[in-house]
Amino acid sequence: MENVEVFDALNKGRGLRATKVFKAGDVIFTEPSFAAVVFDSLSQQVCHTCFRHQDKLHRCSQCRFAHYCDRTCQRAGWDEHKQECAAIKKCSKVPNETIRLAARALWRIEKDGSIVSEGQLTTLDQLEDHVADMSADGLKELKGNVHNFLDYWPHSSQQHEVDRVSHIFGVIKCNAFTLSDQRGLQAVGVGLFPNLSLVNHNCLPNCTVILNHGSQTALNPLFHTQSRIELRAQERISQGEELTVSYVDLLNVSTDRQQLLKQQYFFDCTCECCSQHLKDDLMMAIKEVNGKKPSDLEVKEVTQLSLKALEKIEKARVEGNYHEVVNLCKECLEKQELVLADTHLYKLRVLSTASEVLSYLHYFSEAADYARRMVEGYMKLYPPNNAQLGMALMRAGVTHWHAGQIEVGHSMICKAYGILMITHGPTHSITKDLEAIRTQTEVELRLFQQNKDAYYNMRETALKKVPMSAMAEVIQDSIKKLFRSK
Ligand SMILES: [Zn+2]
Ligand SMILES: [Zn+2]
Ligand SMILES: [Zn+2]
After folding, report:
1. 372 with 419, same domain?
2. 486 pLDDT exceeds 70?
3. Which parts of the sequence belong to the SET domain (predicted)?
4. pLDDT over 70 for what percent of the chain?
């Protein structure tokens, strides 16, 4: 591959570095999955070839498990599904997503070999599995998966030693990448991408990775493009510089991020952000009113109370008690108000949930207030070209638009567009949606500036019709952690 090379990143093992200069928004490489599967819970709602979320899918008549957009996707996915189809037909219960992924990976190796393209820089066998580092619980899960895998794996396929199968499960645990749907709003599946696995972690990375679903709409299949991940530069990168992505959300204090990384990926993060505890002070900041700070006891009380409230809020959210969520958020924010600063993580988490749920319930004005406070905090914490920041700005902008606050809404949407052009690129479906939204808010803003009465009349008529589908979808669901396994 011409843009990158493998190098020895010392205590981090192998790594990838740039062989030329990149500017923000450049695609460094693209990679189709070596193997990928849809999550168990979404197997009937998401296409097993292109990972788009669709209302109506076409079911495989053989196994009755795989689902596709149409014949085109079914045909395109048949090579990967053929052996799986026969194996699923034979079992009483479809195996879980991890087992299906391991099987697809081994069938791929059997069919195409360990290296399937010229640009592939490593094999699954060469990747680390960290089986030796796993906890007792981790090992128990792994053994269960291996056992069920052996039941599922047909006699007609090439047979493998238990160690080889365990290795593949270990590789999946620390290298699998979570796939999102076409709007980037929901995690829908998981896949293996060998080259991406070589990119090491940094809490403040210079690259971002996204799934591009490709295009299967052209009449001539020659013009179809496969779904693939894109590694994109999110800032200027010099020749020889190591390429990094973040495996976890930055919005955790350094010790928490280090713990998460250790548990899931078995390494100690020594990035600059962690070793110098950058931004920890902002994420745990205390409010100062007229030069006066709350007492240590007050801070301790509010911190503990916030943690408990966040648990309750999450429980109510999962159970779908949205009005309860709103009440709990308001109660918690009131207690936090005079004690925690606006960049404090616990406050941001409450603001984020409150705005999301209030938008869902169509209380747009209130939702917009919370969303604005949330993105103001995010802008102080995230680096400028961060995908999460872009997505949050997009949701906040759309919420303001719904609330009739066109000036703020349009400005947020423009900011989000600037970020997503770099993190997702102009051809990604989210960027295209956002482009349509931006055109709409631009027209409305002009009308608003010319004649406010006419603007409000037009809005009222417009809102009686169904709002633009893209605007409605943006606020329906959101997910923050799209990187790697759940
Ligand atoms: Zn499809
Ligand atoms: Zn089938
Ligand atoms: Zn770090």
Report:
1. yes
2. no
3. 2-248
4. 93
Task: Give 383 Cα–ligand 2 centroid separation in angstroms.
Answer: 44
322 vs 460: which has the higher pLDDT: 322
Q: Are residues 332 and 379 in the same domain?
A: yes
* Gap from CA of 383 to ligand 3 centroid (Å): 14
* Ion ligand 1: residue ranges with CB closer than 5 A: 47, 49-50, 69, 73
Considering the domain boundaries, does residue 267 fall inside one? Answer: no
The domain total for the chain is 3
Whether residues 348 and 434 fall in one domain: yes
**Closest ligand to the CA of 53:** 1
- Checking if the pLDDT of 464 tops 80, the result is no
Q: What is the pLDDT of residue 480?
A: 39
C-alpha of residue 263 to centroid of ligand 2, in Å: 36
Kindly identify the ligand whose nearest atom is closest to the C-alpha of 70: 1
- Cα 90 to ligand 1 centre (Å): 25
CATH of the domain at 300: 1.25.40.10
User: In terms of domains, do 146 and 243 share one?
Assistant: no
Please give the average per-residue pLDDT across 307-322, as a whole number. 94
Query: Which of 162, 184, 206 marks a domain boundary?
Result: 184
pTM: 0.91
pLDDT of residue 213: 84
Per-residue pLDDT tens over the stretch 34-49:
999 999 999 999 999 9
- Distance (Å) from CA 70 to ligand 1 centroid: 7
Indicate whether 259 belongs to any domain.
no
Q: Count of CB atoms within 10 A of residue 204's CB?
A: 18
Which protein residues have their CB within 5 A of the ion that is ligand 3?
A: 203, 269, 271, 273-274
Looking at all shown ligands, the one closest to residue 66's CA atom is 2
- Owning domain of residue 208: 1-33+193-252
Q: Is residue 108 part of a domain?
A: yes
* Pair 352, 358: CB distance under 8 Å: no
Which ligand minimizes its atom distance to the CA of 217? 1
Same domain membership, residue 157 and residue 52: yes
Question: Could you give the CA distance from residue 1 to residue 441 in angstroms, rounded to a whole number?
Answer: 42
Q: How many residues does the chain have?
A: 486
Question: 230, 22 in Cβ contact below 8 A?
Answer: no
Whether residue 328 sits in one domain with residue 209: no
**Domain shared by 86 and 157, yes or no:** yes
Neighbours of ion ligand 2 (CB under 5 A): 60, 62-63, 66, 85
Cα distances (Å, whole numbers) of residue 26 to 22, 67, 215: 6, 34, 20
- Please give the single-letter amino acid code of residue 241: E
Residue 113 has pLDDT above 50, yes or no: yes
Q: What percent of the chain has pLDDT over 90?
A: 81
Residue 258 lies in a domain: no
DSSP string, 228-273: EEEEEESS-B-TTPBPEE-SS-S-S-HHHHHHHHHHHH------HH
